[in-house]
Amino acid sequence: MIQYLQNLSFWDWLALATILLILEVFGAGGYLLWIGLAAACVGVLTYLFPALPWVWQFFLFGVLAILTAVVWWRRQRSPLPPSDQPGLNRRGSELLGRRFALHEAIIDGRGKIKAGDSLWLVSGPDLPAGSPVKVVAQEGVVLKVEQDAAREAVR
What we know:
Blueprint: H1 2-6, H2 10-25, H3 31-48, H4 54-77, E1 99-107, E2 110-115, E3 118-123, E4 132-139, E5 142-147, H5 149-154
Helix pairs in contact: 2-3, 3-4
């Protein structure tokens, strides 16, 4: 075994990197990606410096595996920059605070409003169709509404 370790070539490291990256594709959750990247880096270093002793190769492999994992962990933990489209993938959030007329009456707490070209399920107090409502919250695909007293007074 020691004889084999003393004769490691860059092909051995690249083969290890390939195996680790293939295993990562099958669902290791990111753990093998960084170890595979470290093996690939050691393979490149072994290609550039073929006389690199096997002890140093394993030392570099260990250091690079830990270093790449720590760098990625820190990057994952860093706060994301603010988005220029904060409402993206939250379709109902842009309706919060807006006023609509009920498209279908709220009966037993459920009804519908029309916002643009879409119908939205709403929950709130029982009201007849055409009543003015204000969107106050969102729970999944259901918007919570309350009767819009400001518009009611204008009527």
